[in-house]
Write a structure and sequence with these properties.
The complex is a heterodimer of chains A (324) and B (336). Chain A has 324 residues and is mainly alpha-helical. Chain A has a single domain, classed as ABC transporter involved in vitamin B12 uptake, BtuC (Orthogonal Bundle). Chain A is built from 15 helices and two strands. Chain A has a two-stranded antiparallel sheet with strand order 1-2. In chain A, helix 2 runs antiparallel to helix 15, helix 4 packs across helix 12 and helix 10 packs across helix 12. The two termini of chain A are 18 Å apart. With 336 residues, chain B is α/β, with parallel strands linked by helices. Chain B has three domains: 45 residues, no CATH class; 136 residues, Response regulator (Rossmann fold, 3-Layer(aba) Sandwich), CATH 3.40.50.2300; 131 residues, Rossmann fold, CATH 3.40.50.2300. Classes of the chains: A mainly alpha (324), B alpha/beta (336). Chains A and B meet through helix 2, helix 3, helix 12, helix 14 and helix 15 of A and helix 1, strand 2 and helix 3 of B.
Chain lengths: 324, 336
């Protein structure tokens, strides 16, 4: 039974299932296949962002710039498709490369220039958003703002297998690989070591700079993937795409069990956290709660989820401590 | 008639409290379920036979007034249900909400798109299910039943004309603008710039800076502009909030500026009456909402298909350039 006890985020998963069950019982429209399809397609990008965000948070850092990286990668795609008329096979790798470079730059600022992650990524959040405005094809060629992107490869992402969107499979791959990376590789152990005790990690000879840079690069890469998903759904991109999305991604990661102190968490919890946000948003709307009450309830439910998760974790630790 | 507005606010506050109570029930039952006793008594009210949803850009005085206008019309017939949703100014959230209301089986969707193209796939999805979509102020590139907007371009042209006349046909003026990426910004800015060229070619637009639709931000931005151009004669805020911010600066520095806003919200009209604001483009936003609702009720109940609007119904709202002379014509019941 040890394996059952080791299932990560068991408490969160139960909370999630119960929340879904309650909305199902309250709203006939909620308990339809189409609704679950909507939640999957509407929040897979959030899941990808939350998994990416888990890496900096595991290090005890944070990445506030992901929303701006989403916009930057999206705008690179917009320009590539609509101004230069390039095919997806070229534009998509360029979008992802842009987001990785943006992530690495965050990492360099944090390790090279020794800036606080909060400060460094707050600054790059503004910088990347500014660059997005500067390169915006919507500003340079205003008539493009009303043209949609019709690249087959990119729009192929907006397809389904039954009720399951491709974006959801992309999320599963990202979360699975990330969990593998964290749980079964040397790099993963380094991440937990640096996040758990930076000084001890340094003394143990762990390459802190490289580990940090890779974590922020992964966060940037995930932002690029999220941009791909969003652009494929919207068939366009915007300068203000992803404003405020970093906070949702951070919330999803924390609800998913990643500790802001670093060193605790995994890549599966954030996915549940992201879909919990989606279930709450769509559930509250389908139950018919007014817009003005929704943010309050969303906050309370999230607090409940985190509290429940932590209280049970605390109790289990207490029990473990006693049995030893 | 002021009481009527107060009533609306009272009602919406009561609505919020009621919903918080219902929500507490949801949260409460979720807690109860965790300990093993699922409370099944919490059930939402029976849905009305004809459901309509309005997905706003984000909560704002303008969209609240639209919602009020829509409800004015729908409340005449009890068979209509209405729900107001918050797009959170995020294109992805808005798309998700579109999918949600389509799945919920609404009969008509009102939407103020965050992005004209981005909302397109969702509008097409609604069309496949035979749900008419009516856009407010921001159009979509996808074909839909109707579009009703303020007359941004020509209104801004007339603002330029009025401002130019008030500053004597020459001098320097500044624009306090919205962030790029929103079509209204471009229409209003272009209208103002073209209007100045046409009516007052000797007036120079010396600054065009972003103040985020926001009164406080507008104060800071205008203070900076005034440092560079102390001889500024006029300011155009592309919404009333920014114009009011400019008015605050003029008042505190004790300088005379000809300030125009856009939209025509209650505070701006009062400032015009007090002589602090030169003018604004006023649109009866209640009426705009009522018109949208009238179209919606016809489409939902008149046996008319959205496709019968072979060409998309497109209405530009009439407006008044409200200045000290004309503001009195806007009745209290028209103020939002």
């Amino acid at each position: 039974m040890k394996s059952v006890a080791r299932i990560p985020n068991k408490e969160l998963a139960i909370f999630f299932i119960v929340t879904v069950a309650i909305f199902c019982s309250l709203s006939p429209s909620f308990r339809t296949g189409e609704n679950f399809e909507n939640i999957l397609v509407g929040f897979s990008h959030m899941g990808v962002l939350a998994v990416g965000q888990a890496f900096p948070i595991l290090l005890g850092g944070i990445d506030l710039s992901v929303g701006s990286i989403v916009a930057l990668a999206g705008m690179v795609g917009f320009d590539g498709f609509l101004i230069f008329g390039l095919p997806g096979a070229i534009v998509i790798p360029v979008m992802l490369a842009t987001s990785v470079v943006a992530g690495i730059f965050n990492g360099v600022l944090i390790t090279g220039a020794r800036l606080q992650p909060f400060v460094a990524t707050l600054a790059t959040m503004a910088v990347y958003r500014g660059v997005t405005y500067a390169i915006s094809g919507r500003q340079l060629f205003p008539e493009l703002a009303t043209r949609s992107i019709d690249d087959d490869l990119l729009l192929g992402l907006d397809n389904y297998v039954g009720h399951f969107p491709y974006a959801f499979f992309l999320l599963l791959i990202v979360a699975g690989l990330s969990q593998l990376l964290l749980a079964a590789t040397r790099f993963g152990r380094d991440v937990y070591a640096v996040g758990g005790n930076r000084e001890a990690a340094r003394l143990a000879g762990i390459p802190i700079g490289r580990t940090t840079a890779i974590c922020y690069a992964i966060s940037g890469f995930c932002a690029g993937l999220a941009a791909l998903i969003l652009v494929s759904r919207m068939t366009t991109s915007q300068e203000n795409l992803g404003i405020g999305i970093e906070l949702s991604a951070i919330a999803a990661a924390i609800v998913g069990g990643a500790s802001l102190q670093g060193g605790t968490g995994n890549a599966i919890g954030p996915v549940i956290g992201a879909f919990l946000l989606g279930v709450i948003l769509i559930g509250l709307n389908l139950v018919g709660i007014t817009t003005y009450a929704q943010p309050v309830l969303t906050g309370l439910i999230l607090l409940g989820a985190v509290y429940y998760d932590r209280v049970l974790l605390g109790r289990r630790r207490l029990r473990l401590g006693k049995s030893q | 008639m002021r009481t009527r507005t107060t009533d609306t606010y009272e009602t919406s506050r009561r609505e919020v409290m009621k919903n918080l109570a219902l929500g507490a029930l949801v949260a409460g039952s979720s807690g109860a379920a965790l300990t093993g006793t699922l409370a099944s008594s919490a059930r939402a009210a029976e849905p009305a036979p004809i459901k309509m949803a309005f997905i706003q850009f984000q909560p704002h005085t303008v969209s609240s007034a639209w919602a009020k206008g829509i409800q004015d019309v729908l409340s005449i017939q009890p068979k209509f249900g209405f729900q107001l949703l918050d797009g959170q100014a995020k294109a992805d959230i808005q798309i998700s909400l579109m999918d949600t209301v389509i799945n919920d089986g609404v009969n008509v969707i009102f939407v103020q798109p965050v992005d004209s193209v981005g909302i397109g796939p969702s509008i097409k999805k609604a069309a496949r299910k035979g749900i008419p979509v009516i856009t407010l102020n921001i159009d979509s590139t996808a074909k839909h039943a109707a579009h009703i907007e303020m007359n941004h371009y020509f209104g801004a042209m007339e603002i330029a004309n009025a401002m130019g006349t008030m500053i004597g046909g020459k001098g320097k003026v500044a624009i306090l603008n919205a962030p790029p990426g929103i079509i209204i910004r471009d229409q209003r800015t272009n209208g103002f710039v073209d209007g100045m060229k046409k009516y007052h070619p000797d007036v120079q637009i010396v600054a065009d800076q972003v103040a985020d639709w926001d009164r406080k931000k507008a104060q800071d931005v205008l203070s900076t502009i005034l440092t560079a151009h102390p001889d500024l004669g006029g300011v155009y805020g592309v919404n009333d909030s920014m114009a009011l911010g400019a008015m605050d600066v003029a008042k505190s520095k004790g300088i005379k500026l000809v300030i125009f806003g856009n939209d025509g919200e209650k505070d701006a009209l009062e400032a015009i009456e007090a002589g602090d604001l030169a003018g604004t483009q006023y649109t009866d936003v209640f009426q705009q909402g009522r018109f949208a609702a009238a179209v919606a009720t016809v489409l939902a109940t008149g046996g008319v298909q959205a496709s019968a609007f072979a060409e998309q119904g497109h209405l530009l709202m009439p407006y008044v350039i409200a200045t000290k002379e004309t503001v009195g014509t806007i009745q209290t019941y028209q103020r939002w």
